[in-house]
Each structure stands twice: as C-alpha cells, then as structure tokens.
Amino acid sequence: MTKRDAAPSARRSRLGAPLAPSFYDRPTELVARELLGAVLECTTPEGVTRGRIVETEAYLGDHDDACHAVAGLTRRTKDLFGPPGISYVYFIYGMYWCFNAVTRERGHGSAVLVRAVHPTDGLPLMHARRPKAKRERDLTNGPGKLCLAMGIVGEMSGRSLRTPPLMIRAGEPVADDQVIVTPRIGITRAADWPLRYLVRDDPFVSATPKHFQQRTWSP
User: Fold this and answer.
1) Tell me: the pLDDT tens digits for 152-167?
2) 8 within a domain of the structure (yes/no)
C-alpha cells in the first residue's frame, strides 16, 4: 500500500458497520433511543456527509395519532409500511424533506424521525447547501435543516439503510444518564407522549420548549 492510499484506508476502517435490519425490528421507542450516537451518512454526486445522531422522535403506528400510519397505506406512506431498516423520506410545508428509519415488521407503519445530527464529515458541503445558517450549530439542528445540509431528498425513500445513498452506521453508544426524554415537537395530536430522545447538552439538538417536561432516560 502506498502512503497515498494509507489515509483513506484508515478512515474507512474507523467507520462503524451499517446497522442490521434486526436492529430496527424492535419496539420503535427503543430504536429511537438507541439510534442516538449512530452515524447517519448520505452519499450524493457532490460528496459524502456524515453526522452523529443526537435527537430522534418515535412514531408508533396507526394507534399513534401523530404518525402518518393513521392515514393508512397511501402513495405517500407506502415506504412507512415497508420492512424494518429502510428509509421513509417525506415532504412537509411544501419545502422540506424529513428523514425517518422504518421500524418493526412490514405493514406495521412505524418509524423513527431523525431530528438532529452533530456533523462529523462533509462540513464544507453542508455549509454550501445551507449558506443562510449563521452558526455551525444551525446547520443540522432540525429535521428539515439536516436533510438540506446532507442532501437527503425524496428519491432516497424506500431504500435499505445498509447501502448508499443513505446509511446508518454503528457509532459511539450514549450512556443512559446522557439521554433526555421529552414530548415530541411541533405536533397537535398525542402531543404529550414522551417520545423525543436527545443527547444531553449537545449543541446541535433543536430547542426544547420551556414548558416541556424533561426526564433522564431509564430502561
């Protein structure tokens, strides 16, 4: 191996393996908590971006009024009802994509929304895509923001999260006492359900409303 090849090889060896479908085929709340610390990776023609997942929300299925599954199987929601470990990317407000990892068995209709990542690779590309972000923490501290910064779009929906363009890799685990649980943000139905998980004191998590109850995660 030449010196020129050594660095890329070492870089690849430090990347965690893609999470297996069995990781996602579990209760959605548990997947949402354990995705904290994993690495979201997006590959586009412009380059590769990566970020450590630091905030998630669980959407549990058709009994959860805030989950898209309540609308049933539609053209928009078909990927939500797919097998565990695929992507579900949807459009909101006519301007933003949101990325989810599908959980549980095929047909259940549950997923984890990734709300924020702490960037680790591809920051120049993220800044180019989000030129109005005045602070680095504003690049990816929300589901629409992170999709813009990382280049995640609707054509990436329904894909396995083990191969490009979207992957979730194993990362550094987050200790239970560093995980905060709150209600989900920006919803009106089932708004009090404590299904938002975030890494304590990470600068890239989105703002928590002051009136929200917060607690430390307990298995």
Assistant:
1) 999 999 999 999 999 9
2) no
Identify the three-state secondary structure at position 139: coil
In the chain, count of helices (H) and strands (E)?
A: 5, 9
Confirm whether 41 is domain-assigned: yes
Q: What is the pTM of this model?
A: 0.92
| Bridge partners for 121 per DSSP | 50
Q: Can you name the residues that pair with 53 across neighbouring β-strands?
A: 117
Residues in Cβ contact with 75 at an 8 Å cutoff, skipping those fewer than 6 apart: none
Total domains present in the chain: 1
Distance CA 76, CA 72 (A): 10
In a domain, 7, yes or no: no
**Domain of residue 40, residue span:** 16-216
Give how far Cα 78 sits from Cα of 84, 139, 153, Å.
13, 29, 16
Give dist(CA 55, CA 18) in Å, integer. Answer: 19
| 120 inside domain | yes
What is the average per-residue pLDDT within 21-34?
Answer: 98
Write phi, then psi, for 194 (nearest 5 degrees): -80, 80
Q: Which three-class secondary structure state does DSSP give residue 165?
A: coil
Burial string for 128-143 (b: 16+ CB within 10 Å, else e) reads ebbeebeeebebbbbb
**Structure-token pair, residue 138:** 């504003």
CATH of the domain at 118: 3.10.300.10
